[in-house]
Design brief:
346 residues, seven-stranded mixed beta sheet, six-stranded parallel beta sheet, binds NADP nicotinamide-adenine-dinucleotide phosphate, Enoyl reductase (ER) domain-containing protein, ER, ADH-like_C
Length: 346
């Protein structure tokens, strides 16, 4: 039986920066409804999105105050009487948009984000509708599994959601954050080539160990898009770009992309006001597509691939405790991490 109270982090506002994160030690644990599942959360992970919610920079629906965090994994400890898909003891991971089950995202599903509109995962016990959970990969521990909810699924959606990646194609990933590293791992598992960028020589070495075929330092080589193109067969360009830095990188991504290639617009780490013309996709004969995480059906495909290829998400060496979550936010904001920032929940 779970206790009646628990520890959790609540995002209380958009105007107090990280001071808006409040740690509660006696928050109530909800009861399980007919179609609901109670999870003892053992792992969580942070996303850039979690950091920009209390900073007031997040452009998608919010309903504050809310328990923070979208990414969580743990063990089922109770199920409602009408639950059919999960039993006590199952290992599960959260779905980012709880209402996005399959197909394209719609407005209703976009308003079901954990840690934004609905209470999230920075707590000890979570009660979720059964459709809001996915069976966790058998080869991963709880913190590793928790990283799949947002960054993992977004990368998978970029590579498979519109124009599925094929063996032999080339994928360009930017930087060494969660989305980019998943992109690298998924692309290598698919038999694709990977060109990765980073600002750091030390991180470049890790990227090579993870299988990157080429690494370009984007600080030393401001024309890295052209450089990437020149590294592709026939210098025709890359098939996919996982674009995470927005205004800071799109010009170079356009230089790298192949005719009929796909640039997935995922993030805006480098700013939100690009200087390029909206007509560029015509000049470059490419597709520029906005991606918003992904549906449960795609998450299940991703998990099957993770198990089949024994892919282990790259979790930064510094793993935080639930009580230290604010420090984890600060660590990630300072860009001290490589891959995902993990949180262990006792
Ligand atoms: N659309 C969606 O559904 C969705 C889902 C997940 C994430 N996102 C967004 O995607 C972005 C990346 O998320 P994340 O969790 O992977 O972030 P992250 O872990 O914070 O990524 C940080 C890394 O990105 C690289 N980077 C930062 N600024 C850069 C720049 N101007 N140019 C090139 N690289 C840069 C750096 O790599 P180096 O240190 O190696 O240089 C940095 O360490 C965020 O904007 C996030 O909000 C969107």
């Amino acid at each position: 039986m779970p206790p009646s109270t628990q520890k959790q982090w609540v995002v209380t506002g958009k105007d107090k920066d990280f001071d808006g994160l409040v740690f509660q030690t006696d928050a109530p644990v909800s009861q399980v409804g007919e179609y609901e599942v109670m999870v003892k959360l053992h792992g969580a992970s942070l996303n850039y999105r979690d950091l920009i919610i209390p900073k007031g920079l997040y452009p998608f629906p919010l309903d504050l105050p809310v328990v923070g965090g979208s990414d969580g994994a743990g063990e089922v400890i109770a199920v409602g009487p009408k639950v059919t898909k999960f039993s006590v003891g199952d290992k599960v991971v959260t779905l980012f948009n709880q209402g996005h089950q399959f197909g394209p995202v719609d407005v209703a599903a976009s308003k079901t984000g954990l840690g934004g509109v609905l209470d999230g995962t920075l707590r000890q016990y979570g009660v979720f509708p059964e459709q809001g959970l996915v069976r966790a990969p058998q080869n991963l521990n709880h913190v590793e599994a928790a990283t799949l909810t947002c960054a993992g699924l977004t990368s998978w959606n970029a590579l498979y959601g519109l124009k599925p990646l094929k063996p032999g194609e080339t994928v360009l990933v930017q930087g060494t954050g969660g989305v980019a590293i998943f992109g690298l791992q998924f692309a290598k598992a698919a038999g694709a080539r990977v060109i990765a960028t980073t600002s750091s020589a030390a991180k470049a070495e890790i990227l090579k160990k993870l299988g990157a075929d080429h690494v370009i330092n984007y600080r030393e080589d401001p024309n890295w898009g052209e450089t990437a193109r020149n590294l592709t067969p026939g210098k025709e360009g890359v098939d996919h770009v996982l674009e995470v830095a927005g205004a800071g990188t799109i010009t170079q991504s356009l230089r790298a992309i192949k005719y009929e290639g796909v640039i997935s617009i995922i993030g805006f780490l480098g700013g939100v006001e690009p200087k390029d013309s909206i007509l560029e996709p015509l000049m470059r004969i490419c597709t520029i597509r906005g991606v918003y995480v992904g549906p449960k059906s795609m998450m299940q495909d991703m998990i099957a691939a993770i198990e089949a290829n024994d892919i282990h998400p790259v979790v930064d060496q510094r793993v935080f405790k639930l009580e230290e979550a604010r420090q984890a936010y600060e660590y990630m904001w300072a860009k001290k991490h490589f891959g995902k920032v993990g949180i262990k929940i006792e």
